[in-house]
Amino acid sequence: MKRLFLFFLLLISFFVCAQNNVTVLVIDSVTINTSEYLGKDNFDNLYYVANNQLYKKKDTKEFYYKNVGLGRLSQISFENNLQPLLLYSDFNTVVLLDNQLNEVQKIDFNTIDPFLKVSCIGFGGQNKIWFFDSITQKFGLYNSINSSIIFISNTQNTEITKIHSDYNFFYYLDQNNNYSKISIFGKITLLGKLPDYASFCFLDATKIIYRLDNSLHISNLEDRTTSEILIKEKSFTNFFFKDGILSIFTQNKIINYQINLP
To answer: What domains lie within the chain, and their CATH numbers?
Structure first.
């Protein structure tokens, strides 16, 4: 009877563990010549950086943009594939591109009143750009048509370490690992506190995919559950998630998985 009880206990434990696993299915793989893969947009265009140049590629078509006069390319936002945004922090400048990576507009924040030191950006919709000013430590919206600036938050007394955005919200992680969002009206909502992950990407507003050693996991910030993603790669450089597709980048190759969420 004792052995039977132990057998059922092990069986239940196995079932619970299995429930915490997320299975994936290989869709395809793509080879690219880079060591810095950024991700893809809604039209499956791939974005990556090589030699401080931004590349956009799909099938046999490839576009690129470089500006050696602005120093290091520090942030790329391609939530809007028709208008990618580039931040060159060394020169406090943002560059707007078109869908073929031609330069459309260059915004030098050194010449704008009030003076801003922009540390992160995001696409805000309707010719607006999210920004965080490291001088006032406030969030704001910049209008690229009339060059107007609106601060939408109070002083935050923190540093922003990771961001993503959409038309209505700017999601950000601060130096204390607080994960929050701010609306276009300035309302800030704390979504959760993240552990010290070496790298992670956003799955949605309440879930992240993070790397732990050489494995990937999904963390749900609402119910605080964690699930391991069962991928075969044990060594990889970067990962990216969009529209149900998990992309693993390793040795100049992108392996795309269909992810089956629990």
So the answer is: 67-193 (2.120.10.30)
27 Cβ contact partners less than 8 Å away, ≥ 6 residues apart: 245, 256, 257, 258
Neighbours of 43 (CB within 10 A): 9
List the chain pLDDT tens, one digit each, 262 residues: 444 433 333 333 333 333 478 888 899 888 888 878 898 888 889 999 999 999 999 888 999 999 999 999 999 999 888 999 999 999 999 999 999 999 999 999 999 888 999 999 999 888 899 999 999 999 999 999 999 999 999 999 888 988 888 788 998 889 888 889 999 999 999 988 877 776 888 887 778 888 888 889 998 888 888 889 998 887 888 898 888 889 999 878 899 999 877 6
Q: DSSP letters of 68-82? A: GGG----EEE-SSTT
Pairwise CA distance, residues 177 & 34, whole Å: 30
